[in-house]
Specification:
Length: 77
């Protein structure tokens, strides 16, 4: 595993010092989990924005609505 050097505020150091309280084996595993969670949150936000854009495009385009209705005609409900 690669190592990286970075700076944190004192309050963050104290939080990391409590890694056992949160069920982690060490500070590094706690920080890796936090980074993974943040990455997932950013990706989810990107997906939400994309879905909103597609929704806006769909709601403003009658041709897309008609195409969708045509495509689902005959599908079981």
């Amino acid at each position: 595993m690669q190592q990286a050097k970075f700076s944190v505020r004192e309050v963050q150091v104290h939080f990391l010092d409590d890694f056992r309280t949160y069920g982690f084996k060490d500070k590094s595993s706690m920080l890796r989990k936090a980074i993974d969670n943040f990455k997932n949150m950013l990706e989810l936000e990107s997906l939400r924005k994309s879905a909103d854009l597609y929704s806006d495009l769909y709601s403003e385009n009658d041709n897309l609505k008609e195409l969708t209705e045509t495509a689902i005609t005959g599908w079981p409900e």
